[in-house]
Each structure stands twice: as structure tokens, then as C-alpha cells.
Amino acid sequence: MTAFPGNSYDAQVTPPETTTPPDADSVDTTVPRYQIGEVAERTGVTQRALRFYEEKGLLQPPERMEGGFRRYSDDDIVRIEFVKKLQDLLGFTLSEIKEMVESEELRQQVIASRHLDPALPARLIRAERIIDALQRQLDVVDHKADALIEMRSELRDRLEAMFKRREDIQAKLAAEEPTPKKKRRSQPTPG
Fold first, then answer.
1. What integer best gives the mean pLDDT of the chain?
2. Which of 74, 99, 116, 133 is most exposed by smallest CB count within 10 Å?
3. Domain span including residue 86
4. Angle ∠(103,105,107) on CA atoms, nearest 5
5. Which sign, positive or negative, has the C-alpha torsion 39, 53, 99, 89?
């Protein structure tokens, strides 16, 4: 995976990357690239949202064609789908998503560098960085889970209060209803 901008650990894990996309001559032409409309269609995310994700640092600025058109990679599409999943399924804000994505990227970078540091002290540092990244992700999820648990509790309290209110209303209605009078049996008419 590619390193993403805005990750404060990038300099420690990988050489710093430029935030300007490569020029057309340096782009690997064997790797598939997609225009913004194709990516929008494949991911179900609007073109405007894709530009917004880029602006907010959720996406690395994509490569550009000579005319300035954005060109996205398969890695970009995977990241967009991850962001969309966090938004759709979990209700994360873009800020929370950015934290999750950056932490996952850091974790992937550290794991990918494991073959470079066979010494135990270096392995310990790598393990600490992975723990930090996972803890950051867990903190975001825990915050969201706590908020959901609190909301569920409030909704249950409201529902219980409404059940009680309904029972009170039903009891008052039952007390107000006149008791039905017994009908007299009609006398058979002589025939």
C-alpha cells in the first residue's frame, strides 16, 4: 500500500513522500488507472465526495493526466471503499475515518518493513508502533461504541416511559368507560 499524507509517523517508518503526484513520464503504465467518473461508479461515491476526501487528506492526491484529469489506482479504490464502509456501516465522521485509515496505513507500513530489521531492539520498536496504531483504532471504535451504548440506554428509558404512559392512559380509559348494561331478553311474541 502507499503511504498517505498527514500521517505523523511517515518520516519514522518510510522515506517522506511528496504530496505532488508524479508526472506522466514517471507513472508505471502497467498498473491500471481509472478516471474519477469510473471510480465514482465503481465505489458508489460521488465525484464531489472523492474531491472532498482528497481535500481532507483521506485520499492521497491522485496522479494527473496531461489535461489535469485525476487518475486513481486500485489502492485508491480500496481506500475509498474502506472510507465508505466506515461511513455507511459504522456512522463514523470523516475525522474518525481519517484517524482509522492513517492508523491502519501505519500498521501496514510497519509490518511491511519487518524484513529490514531482524535485530530484537528494532523488532521491539516495530511492535510498539503497531500497538500504538491498533490502540488508536480501538480508541476511535470505543468512543463510537460508548456513544451508541449511551444512546441505546436513553432510547430504552424513553421507550419504558412511553410504555408506562400508555398503560396509564389505557387504565384511565377503562375507568371512564361505562359498564355495559345487561340486555333484557326479549319475550317471545305469541304467534
1. 77
2. 116
3. 10-175
4. 70
5. negative
Q: Whole-prediction pTM value?
A: 0.47
The residues, ordered by sequence, that sit 6+ positions from 2 with a Cβ below 8 Å of its Cβ are 17, 60, 73, 75
CATH of the domain at 144: 1.10.1660.10
Which residues pair with residue 70 across a beta bridge?
Answer: 64
Of 22, 14, 18, 78, give the one whose Cα is nearest residue 45: 78
Among candidate residues 43, 68, 67, the one with its CA nearest the CA of residue 59: 43
- The residue ranking higher by pLDDT, 69 or 170, is 170
**Measured distance CA(16)–CA(125) in Å, rounded:** 19
Does residue 187 lie in a domain region?
Answer: no
Residue 191 belongs to some domain of the structure: no
pLDDT tens profile 51-84: 888 888 888 878 888 888 888 989 889 889 888 8
